[in-house]
Amino acid sequence: MSSSAPNDARPEGTTHFGFRDVPTAEKAGLVREVFSSVAGKYDLMNDLMSLGVHRVWKRYFVATSGVAKGDRVLDLAGGTGDIAALLHERVGEAGEVVGGDINAAMLGVGRDRMTDRGLVRGLRWVQLNAEMLPFPDASFDLVTIAFGLRNVTDKAKALREMHRVLKLGGRALVLEFSEVKPEWFKPVYDFHSFKVLPRLGKLFANDAASYQYLAESIRKHPPQDELKAMMAEAGFERCDYRNLSAGICAIHSGYRV
Questions:
Q1: What is the pLDDT of residue 52?
Q2: How far is it, in rounded angstroms, from Cα 156 to Cα 251?
Q3: For the chain, which residues make up each domain, given as ranges?
Q4: Is the CB of residue 191 less than 8 Å from the CB of residue 234?
Q5: Which tens digits make up the pLDDT trace of 138-173?
Q6: What is the pTM of this model?
Q7: Backbone angles phi, psi at 155, to 5 degrees
Q8: Cα(202)–Cα(204) distance, rounded to whole angstroms?
Q9: What is the domain class of 14-183+210-255 according to CATH?
Q10: Who contacts 63 (Cβ-Cβ below 8 Å, separation ≥6)?
Q11: Which H or E element spans position 163?
């Protein structure tokens, strides 16, 4: 299996769901089913998939976000709450973190986990679609989305919405799996993605199909320079990205000015 995405030519009115073409209107529901299936084991599987490195990526993501005390932050695809918890530490009691996710099961896991840790004040949870954010213009100092943009049906629309709800001078940050750069590493990465991950999914979550989809969705996600261009097209300025772990993932950044 090549690490490059298959040909993107597809029938009108369809979009990709992994390597399959599906009616555009059905993708959100299919993604919702995947994450409803994996919600209870999501963080365990992330540890298994990345050997725990995803925790380092996320801490670095928040540590370099520029978020400050008193800021209001929107964390999209907030899922199990790990990014929200890290942001909450930094905005303090005067700030607020809104965790948003399209999937009720994932949102419930995150909300319950934070409540169990005593993290209630300054945290809010909203079920939402990233393509139609239920917030006024210029509502947030920072908008983050970690490992979620690749699952959005209309990524360009979601990026425009992220831009819209940012205050002037606000920043958007996207942490997402991306295109591995060293040629020698690509076959190793492909073997891990398409041979190891589905087996881990079957063994630990009794769900090989969802992890097959997750591996395929990474290959269909726009690579670094393409996503940078999409952010600029959505209205962001000073767009840039930083590769992590040889490009396994990347942090993209843009400002509303």
A1: 83
A2: 17
A3: 14-183+210-255
A4: no
A5: 999 999 999 999 989 999 999 999 999 999 999 999
A6: 0.87
A7: -65, -40
A8: 6
A9: alpha beta
A10: none
A11: helix 155-165
